[in-house]
Amino acid sequence: MSETLSINLDPRLLANELSSLHLINGALVPATSGETFDVIYPATLEVIGKAAAGDRDDVVSAVAAAKAAQPGWAGLSARERGKLIVECGRRLTEHAEELGRLVALETGKALRTESRVEASVLADAFVFYGGLGSELKGETVPFSPTMMTLTQREPIGVVAAIIPWNVPMMLMAYKIAPALVAGNTVVVKSAEEAPFAVLRICQIMNQVLPAGVFNILSGMGPECGGPLVAHPDVGKVTFTGSVETGKIIYRAAAEKLIPVTLELGGKSPMIVMADADLDKAVDGAVGGMRFTRQGQSCTAATRIYVEEPLREAFVEKLTAKVNKLKMGDPLDEATDIGTIVSQQQYERVTSFIEIGKKEGATAHELSALPQAGSGLDKGFFVRPVVFTNVSDESRLTREEIFGPVTCVYGFNGLEEALRLANDSVYGLAATIWTRDLKTAMTATQRLQAGFVQVNQNLVVMPGLSYGGIKQSGLGREASLEAMLEHFTHKKTVIINMT
Ligand code: NAI
Ligand code: MG
Questions:
Q1: Which residues form the active site (predicted)?
Q2: DSSP state, 451?
Q3: Mean pLDDT of 413-434
Q4: If you take atom 29 of ligand 1, which residue's CA is the nearest one?
């Protein structure tokens, strides 16, 4: 437990080293079946390594390890667990550059603008939750003078976390840090596309944590994630991904009557009022759309409603700004925008762009593909697109695209903006841009979303509850409440004093 792993800044070597392995009960082990699948660098389609194809047998081993480790882990004081989690954060900071490069290689997210940023904020989640051990407290209840009545927080047991590929390290951190501090042990199922950076994190943390406390499997959703959710010893599932898979997991959890946290998709509106600071709003749209992450974000500002007097100028400034972003090799420091993560996502995103064009919307296709002959010809590069003249009923307006595609619409007056913004099955994030206090306050009250911001478009931050309403999910993450409500149960204790 006191070893230190050496830092490996060559992501290809590291991917190779981590190939074909799960981490179960403190040890790197291959899949029981010996099966693997290829992991690619989406900029060149080069195979960078193999992931272990976990199935039911691996799930059984990982859950058994987590179950066996749980009483000992919960038997440490909460502050002691917290200190170990803070130490994990410290070590992850030492490995930040290595992790940034590795996640850039497997996801195609540009190193400078995205992957390194993800790696550098990762430790924050561990430091934040590590400090909250002593907040796992109960209450005394003034029920009767002859009865001492109190509540106490207890861990659930074994928690399963199923994570996606878009921000795999950070999304995993916001699941496992609170689960562990609360005294649970965890089994993570990584995303097919991005198994290595999270496996590396698990390896680093296993230098600090007792064996079996944090286990990780790679594998396909139905073959590995399915049996994990269904395992009788898993007492809680926390998931980030598509609405479709979220519903499958919710149904499976219902069979066992266990709690779930679901962070699902979004179609987040951004409302720009005529009195807004135009340049700030344009910057907010570029950042909020996560163009540098190829729009692969559940909170991406994909429906931008601009009040008519500003609409034309807004589109002009937005397209000019996005046009300046440089697409290229994700590992190149000069690159702003890397690639889409996989062929499946590439086809999905490009098909939406085709739909928009066929419907007669105006497609402003921006930036430029990497030059022919740069070795990137086969890569999953998609030029960012700003659509205008899109109908409210278009699939572009209705469905999550999860690519560098946003639509700008016009409106007149706050009432119309709120009606359009709320006309969605999703309710994850929303922003409004205005200098008027009353407009801002009215909008924050009436926007149907779990995360609403005025005149800014920031990402998830420790301490602030994050999550959606409507089909964007169930539960909250990233806050103290998230740990207490989603990773513990409350026991009521009554002591008769007569
Ligand atoms: P997905 O929801 O299918 O995959 C996410 C995770 O769930 C992966 O680890 C996957 O292996 C696992 N999974 C899939 N089927 C499962 C099952 N039956 N049982 C248990 N686990 C299962 O998402 P995918 O296919 O990667 O992307 C499809 C769409 O989902 C994207 O286009 C995007 O719209 C949305 N998405 C949303 C994300 C978010 O941050 N909310 C992240 C990733 C995708
Ligand atoms: Mg899927």
A1: 263
A2: E
A3: 98
A4: 242
